Design the sequence.
């Protein structure tokens, strides 16, 4: 992304592509009000630049060259610094069709704005100090949230819950650095030893806080991205029926013909606030059908990429070679073994199933009758929260970049402890502490490079 100039005025369509009741064209920058003056004719006849900030005014957009009315609109002005970007912002709310939106956008560009780059509005909010980097990244998490819980986590990070914790940790490290530097200025041996001992205790406290944040990382990632879940089993065991039951709708084709699911069906399912990115695969079996064979191979690949595997077995028939082939895919994977059709007379050897399961959860269910599905949902929720983190946790680490920075900070703190243990001079400990402080600063953007900032904001949609 190019470096943003404070002299630029940017413009973009801020609403989703397609038809809708309302569409929004957003401008930000020093020329935003002047451009609005040339385009917008208020019912009152007043110019946009004279409107009070944060007031809604009805009028129309007119092409200044032809005098043609483009659309009836309402216009909102938000003057700096009381705006999202801390610059003058104008929002034009028009009818939500692609033609009026494009016409209005084109007029703003003709009159001196330039097209906003992806995430540029939020990038300006960051550069102008309205949001720190962790809060800015939470904006996209709010937009992409898939359940109420993932929205709650994103909103918590947007409000600064994670940032506040990280900033407090950085302050603790700065105090340690100051304590050691004071000891360096007064190099009596007993003062240096006492300062090092105090700092060692404080490092332990900071590391404990970082560990608590990192304990939320797996759950945070799941809430942000979804728990990648693969349903596997031999053909006609009820995989598609299970998917439909979890979705509570008929998304997958269900027939008595083995091999009905030839492709990979992917859906997001809300399981008590946990988003499951659930994948229904082709039945795993030996087959001469080329198309089905590709689906089977793809299913095996997905097993290796999944966070969770749901293995479906048929209670009404003995364990087959195909079942054993499915169960042999499990070593090293998180899995739940589901014995379906439990409403029918059982012919399955449970002892053999438990041997393959090797301590994994084995549940009896009946997709047709709906039996056991509530228990399955609870097991999935417990797995997502790792049995350690309550759903009321104030701050979650839901971003791989943040988790990596926390781990690296912890490593540098370990280095500081080792340096103290080796009775090295305080200035050597300060080097490690300052490195940890900088790593934590990457989360909030205080010590992050321009390339990382650009990479983050290119993930945003245009107009946000």
Sequence:
């Amino acid at each position: 992304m190019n470096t943003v100039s404070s002299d630029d005025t940017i413009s973009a369509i801020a609403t989703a592509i397609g038809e809708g009741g309302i569409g929004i064209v957003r401008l930000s920058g020093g020329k935003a009000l002047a451009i609005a003056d040339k385009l917008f004719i208020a019912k009152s006849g007043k110019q946009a630049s004279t409107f009070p900030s944060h007031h809604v005014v009805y009028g129309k957009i007119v092409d200044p060259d032809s005098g043609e009315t483009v659309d009836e609109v309402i216009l909102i002005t938000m003057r700096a610094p009381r705006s999202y970007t801390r610059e003058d912002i104008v929002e034009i709310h028009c009818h939500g069709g692609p033609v009026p939106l494009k016409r209005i956008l084109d007029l703003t560009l003709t009159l001196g704005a330039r097209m906003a780059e992806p995430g540029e509005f939020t990038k300006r909010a960051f550069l102008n100090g309205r949001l720190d980097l962790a809060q800015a990244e939470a904006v996209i998490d709010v937009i992409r949230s898939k359940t109420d819980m993932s929205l709650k986590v994103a909103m918590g990070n947007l409000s600064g819950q994670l940032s506040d914790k990280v900033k407090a940790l950085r302050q603790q490290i700065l105090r340690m650095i100051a304590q050691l530097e004071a000891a360096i200025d007064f190099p009596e041996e007993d003062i240096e030893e006492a300062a090092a001992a105090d700092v060692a205790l404080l490092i332990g406290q900071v590391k404990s806080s970082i560990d608590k944040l990192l304990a939320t990382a797996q759950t945070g990632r799941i809430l942000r991205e979804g728990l990648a879940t693969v349903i596997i089993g031999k053909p006609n065991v009820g995989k598609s029926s299970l998917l439909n039951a979890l979705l509570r709708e008929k998304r997958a084709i269900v027939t008595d013909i083995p091999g009905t699911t030839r492709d990979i069906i992917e859906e997001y399912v809300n399981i008590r606030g946990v988003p499951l990115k659930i994948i229904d695969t082709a039945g795993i079996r030996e087959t001469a059908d080329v198309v089905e064979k590709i689906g089977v191979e793809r299913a095996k690949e997905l097993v290796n990429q999944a966070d969770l595997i749901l293995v479906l077995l048929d209670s009404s028939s003995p364990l087959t070679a195909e079942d054993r082939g499915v169960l042999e895919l499990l070593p090293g994977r998180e899995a739940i073994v589901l014995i379906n059709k439990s409403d029918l007379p059982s012919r399955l050897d449970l002892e053999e199933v438990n041997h393959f399961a090797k301590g994994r959860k084995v549940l009896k269910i009946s997709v047709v009758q709906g039996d056991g599905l509530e228990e399955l949902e609870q097991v999935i929720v417990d797995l997502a929260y790792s049995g350690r983190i309550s759903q009321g946790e104030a701050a979650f680490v839901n971003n791989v970049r943040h988790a990596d920075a926390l781990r690296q900070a912890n490593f540098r703190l370990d280095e500081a402890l080792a340096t103290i243990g080796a009775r090295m001079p305080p200035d050597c400990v300060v080097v490690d502490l300052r490195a940890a402080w900088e790593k934590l600063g990457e989360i909030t953007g205080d010590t992050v490079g321009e390339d990382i900032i650009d990479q983050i904001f290119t993930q945003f949609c245009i107009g946000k």
About this structure: The longest helix spans residues 189-214.
